[in-house]
# Entry
Amino acid sequence: MTRAPFEDPTPIPPATGAGADLAVDVSIVIVVYRTPDYLKRCLDAIEAAHPGVAYEVVVVDNAPADDRSERLAADRPLVRYHHSKKNLGFGGGANLGVRLARGRHFLILNPDVAVRPGSIEALCRLLDEESDIGIAAPRLEYPDGSLQHSVRRFYTFQVFLLRRTFLGKVFPQARALRDHLMLDWDHASTRDVDWCIGGSMMVSRRAVDDVGGMDERFFLYFEDVDWCYRMHQRGWRVVYHPAATMQHDYQRASAKGFWPKRGLWIHLASLVRFYEKWSFLLYWLKLRSGLLRNAALFVADLTGVVLAFLLAYSLRSYMGGLFEKPLFAFHKYYRFLAFAVGAAGGFFLLTGLYRERARASFLENLVGVTRALSWTSLVMMATTFLFSVRVYSRLVIVIFFPLAILCVTLLRTALLAAAERFKQYDLNLKRVGLIGPREEVAKLEARIERYGRFGLEPVPLLPAHSETLDDPARLARRVRHERVQEIVIFESWGGNLTQLVTELRNTSIPIRLVPRLHGLVPSDANLASFYGLPALALTGGAKGKGLGLGSRLFDLSAAALLAVVFLLPFLLAALSRVLGGRRVVTRSALRCGGGAVREIPRLSGIGWSAHPVATWIAAYPALGALARSEVRFVGLYPFTESEWDQLDADDRALPADGRPGFFGPWTGCTRPLHELAEWNRWYAANQATVEGLRAFLRAQLGR
# Structure
C-alpha cells in the first residue's frame, strides 16, 4: 500500500471480522477544506436522497483553524466528524476517512457534489454484482444539467499542455484533447474507462485492501489518476455507470485565464511525479540506479582529484615570489596527474567507498575519502622518483593532497545531497515489494514508517484478503506492473516458496529472503556453502568483531587523551562532592544485551545522557575500563534496569558480551527506547574502528 504517515494511526479494517461493521453498506467519505456552505448542501442532498442502503457519513476536515464544518456536522447523527491536525491534502484526507469508515464500500465525495436519489444504490448494486470492479464512477452534471466529462483516458504531455495552458483555447478541437475527454462517446452507457475524477467515486473495500489508498505524495491533482492506474495494474476494473447521477459545481479556477496560474505548477509537479513513478524508461534506469549512482560518484571523485591539483598548482604559482626557483610548466605534471588520478581511483575502489550506501554527510564522507587518499599519498610519495620533478616541486604535492580530500568530500556530499533532495519531494523513491504473511508485512511497514523511509516505498504485493496467489507467474507480472525495484519475501509466507523464488528470479529484480528465525539471525550473518548447500553462519559473526589492534589502539588513545583533558574538571567536581558530604563515585547497573548486568563506576549526580562534557566528567572513573576495552568509546547504549524492563524480547536479543559506549546517537539528546535498541542491533554488527568513528561523528551531529 502506498502510504505516508497519518495523523490518525487507525488501520484500514479488513473486509470481514471484528474491524468491519457489515451492517454498513456504504461509508460516504467527504474531505472538506473551508467549505462549510458546500458541505451543508452536500449533507442535505444525501439526506434528501433517502439512500436505500445502510450508510454512514465520515467528514474529514483538513482546515485545522476552522471549526465551521464541525459545528455543522454536530447535529447530524449519521455524520462522524474528524478534525485533522494539519492539511493532509485530498488523498491524505480520503485515506484517513477510509480508515475511519466501517462500510463494505466507500463513496469518496467532494463537498461540492450533490447526490441524487437512487445514485448511491446504483453504484453499490454494481459493485455487489460485479466483484472485479474496484471503482465505480457516476455520471456528473453541471448545475444546468449539462454533462461533465468526468471519466477520461490517461494523460499525455500533449494533453496536459492543452488542458492547463492557453493552448487549449487556441486548439479547442485538437484530436488529442477530444480523445482524452472521450468526446466520441455519448456517455449514456456503462463502460470501462481509464480513470475518473476523485470528486465522486465509489470504491470497493476489497479493492482498497488489495491496492491500498490514494498515494499521498500527490497533495493535489493526479491522486485519482494514480489510484485508477494502480487499480488497473492489480486487475481491478474502473467502470463508468450513468445510472447513478450526481451534480457537481465544478470550477476550474486555477486553469482559467490566458496565462498559467499557481494551479498549473501544482498540476505540473503532480504530472512529473506520476510519470517518475510509472514511466518504463525511468523504471529501467532505476533498476540500475546503484550502478549509475556509483558511476556518478566515481566521476565526481576523480573530478575532485583533478580540481584539487589545479588549485594546488595555482596556489604554488601565486606563491612564486617566495621561492628562488621557478615553477615548472603545467605540462610537466601531466604524467604525475594521470598517475595520481589512477591511484586515487584505485584506492577509492579498494577501500569500499562504493560498496555501501553513502549519505550526504560531510563528516561521514570525510572519513572514507581521507582513508583512501592517505593510501594514495603514501604511494605517490614513494614513487616520485618515477617522474622528472625536482625536490622543490613536491610542494605542489604537499598542497595537493589536503585539497584533494576537501574537494572530493565536497563534491561527493553535494552530489548525494542533490539526490536526497529529490527524495524530500517524494521523487525517486525505491519501490520495495513485500511478500509474506499479512502481520509480518504490516510490522515491516510500521518499522519503515517509524524509523524513516530513507527513500523507500513499501508495496505489499499480496491482497489483504488472501495470503497467496494461485499462479506465481501472475505474481511476477504484478511485480513488473508495480514497477518494483526490489523484492522482500518472508520465508514464513504460506505459498510455494520454491516456485515463487524461481519465477521471480526471472525478473532480474534483486530479492531478499527474510528467514523464519530472523529474530535470531545477526545482521552480519555469513552465507556460505556447506557441502553444496547454502548455510547461514549464526555464530562468529558480530561477536568480537572490531576488537582487533586498531580498535584497541583507538580506545587506548581515547582513554589517555581524556584522562589528561578531564583530570582537573573531575578533581574539582569530586572535591565539591566531598565538601558537600555526598558520595563521590557510584556504580551504575546497566545492560546492553543478553541479560548481562555491568557495573560501571561513575561520578555521582550526573545522568548518563547529559551534556557531552558532563558525561565525560561523570565517566572519568570508567576510563580504566575504556583502556581495557571493557567499555567502548562509541558502543552500545547501556540501558538502566527500569529501561530494560520496558524492552521486548527482540530488543534484548544482543550478544551478552556487548560493550557499552560513552558516545552514540543519544549523546546530548533524548531518544526513544526503540531507537536506542535499533542502534544497539546495528552497532553490534558494525563495531569496526572506522564504523565507530563514523558513529561518533553522527553523534556529534545529533543524528
